[in-house]
Amino acid sequence: MPRLQKNDNFIDKTFTILADIVLKVLPTSKEEKTAFYYYRDGMSAQSEGEYAEALENYYEALQLEEDPYDRSYILYNVGLIYSSNGEHAKALEYYHQALELNNNLPQALNNIAVIYHYQGTKAIDNNRNKMSKKMFTKAAQYWKQAITLAPNNYIEAQNWLKTTGREYNIEEQL
């Protein structure tokens, strides 16, 4: 199960050592520890562009991990991989699953908005104006939620909302 470290930089090694120490000290079950190792190996593979290997590790982690908060991050990372591979429907599925377990994931909301914005742009390219409006409206809804959770992030999205007349207003979100 342990992944061979192909990337031998100082930060990766330090993180691995610290994570191993923390896991030994924390009172967690064997399954939780194993799930974390799979998750860590998945993140390492993902950072190196080894998406198939990352997915295998994430799926293993999902089989073992019971904590909803931890599962949400695993599901989010699976969504990232599918999104990177252009499989937007699958990415949306995993982002939504992550949000069901943890509704405080502005990055998942942002990524959903990015996909809808992309689909809106594609619809314009194909002269599907009704569809583009629908996708842009969805993008705006998700960006507003993400900005509510992380008001100092997503500046480009805030600018897009403003320039397209979908201006973000924090008072309307509260």
UniProtKB/TrEMBL annotation:
The keyword Thylakoid applies. This is Photosystem I assembly protein Ycf3. PROSITE patterns: TPR, TPR_REGION. It is a peripheral membrane protein. Belongs to the Ycf3 family. The gene is ycf3. One of its GO terms (cellular component) is chloroplast thylakoid membrane. Seems to be required for the assembly of the photosystem I complex. Keywords: Chloroplast, Membrane, Photosynthesis, Plastid, Repeat, Thylakoid, TPR repeat. It is found in: Membrane; Plastid, Chloroplast thylakoid membrane. PANTHER family: CELLULOSE SYNTHASE OPERON PROTEIN C (PTHR44943), TPR REPEAT-CONTAINING PROTEIN MJ0263 (PTHR44943:SF8). TPR repeats lie at residues 35-68, 35-68, 72-105, 72-105, 120-153. GO terms for biological process: photosynthesis.
